[in-house]
Specification:
about 350 residues; Rossmann fold; Glutathione S-transferase Yfyf (Class Pi), Chain A, domain 2; 6-stranded antiparallel beta sheet; 10 helices; about 40% helix; globular; RecF_2; DNA replication and repair protein RecF; nucleotide-binding
């Protein structure tokens, strides 16, 4: 099982120095508002992705003692494998990533420390445009299917070239040079996405049946071009429209993940608390799909566990987290309600950027 064994941070947000060593598979960090709970999860996320989930510029992560910060960690990918040492450092406007003492890329960190997060901003995945839903889907496909990344790169390269021809008002003949590669990689990319969402749908629906009483659920990929056409055919038919826009209007970069319950859209159908449970179910199902393919359960970060959830929903979500085989690190305002009687978790308290263990 993938485990974060140790996290250290220096001059990161509120933390002058931070040291976290989760003892149990499930950990909770308690503290008041603005005490540093979210920043602690942000540090773990940064160690995995090289950047914040809050969209902050690297300079904004620096604390009060200068324009620099560093996050390091020790990770066990599974019980039999050696541990890995990861590091992300920002100084003098430069970000350096390291893995086991060597210079690394963000993809190296992403593979060494697989992390997903449930945080309040993720309501955008349901409320805003398709970009967030595509990003969620592609994160899973990346970890499940090794051919995804080279296929995505092929598609993006051909898309850039075709768009350049469109901006230069090129001829049909010039457009046709890039369309076979764009169509072939785009069709393959869509098939990988469809396989992933078809596998996720029943697993998400089964979890939602335990979390709250709605259903049946439908999860559908709309590929980004009209049904009944191949992508190659859609590209040819769309040339005039593409010229007017100066960019390719059809393809996987315009795909949408459609989520419905009882054959109705969910945007104004379910409450904020139910939206949180839906996203949790999607993350848990996707994490189990990643574990089945990669042999490692992603580490789940849950920010503000009880927010927007009635006690019965908190109980249901907690039960799902307790049954998840991977590591979970969550934050909450205080140890009360359904969290009061947990005895199988590491407990921490943070105040003004100072973390201490409670157990």
């Amino acid at each position: 099982m993938m485990r974060l064994l140790q996290l250290r941070a220096e001059n990161y947000r509120l933390f002058h120095e931070l040291s976290l060593q989760p003892r149990c598979r499930l950990s909770f960090v308690f503290g008041a508002n603005a005490a540093g709970k979210t920043s602690l999860l942000e540090a773990i996320y940064t160690l995995s992705r090289g950047k914040s989930f809050r969209g902050s510029a690297q300079a904004e992560l620096a604390g009060s003692v200068g324009r620099h910060w560093r996050v390091t960690g020790r990770v066990a990918t599974n019980e039999d494998a050696p541990t890995h040492h990861l590091g992300v450092q920002w100084q003098d406007g430069m970000t350096r990533l390291r893995l086991d003492g060597r210079e690394a890329t963000s993809l190296d960190l992403l593979d060494a420390l697989i992390v997903q997060i449930l945080e309040p901003g993720m309501h955008r995945m349901l409320q805003d445009g398709p970009t967030y839903r595509r990003s969620f889907l592609d994160w899973g496909v990346f970890h499940v299917e090794p051919s995804f990344l080279p296929t995505w790169r092929r598609y993006r390269r051909a898309l850039r070239q075709r768009n350049q021809v469109l901006r230069q008002t090129g001829s049909d003949r010039q457009l046709a040079v890039w369309e076979p590669e764009l169509a072939a990689s785009g069709e393959r990319l869509t098939e990988l996405r469809r396989q992933h969402i078809d596998a996720l749908g029943p697993a998400v629906a089964a979890r939602l049946a335990r979390l709250f009483d709605e259903g049946p659920w439908q999860f559908e990929l709309q590929p980004g071009w009209p049904q009944g056409l191949t992508l190659a055919e859609a590209l040819v038919r769309g040339r005039d429209q593409d010229r007017r826009h100066g960019a390719t209007q059809m393809g996987p970069h315009r795909a949408e993940v459609r989520i419905r319950v009882n054959d109705r859209g969910i945007k104004h159908r379910i409450s904020r608390g139910q939206q949180k449970l839906l996203i949790a179910a999607m993350l848990l199902a996707q994490s189990e799909a990643v574990a089945e393919a990669a042999g490692r359960y992603p580490i789940l970060l849950v920010d503000d566990f009880g927010a927007e959830l009635a006690e019965r929903y908190q109980t249901a979500l907690l039960k799902e987290l307790q049954h998840y085989p991977g590591q979970v690190i969550a934050t909450a305002f205080e140890r009360s309600g359904v969290l009061r009687h947990i005895d199988d978790a590491s407990m921490f308290h943070v105040e003004r950027g100072v973390l201490r263990a409670l157990d």
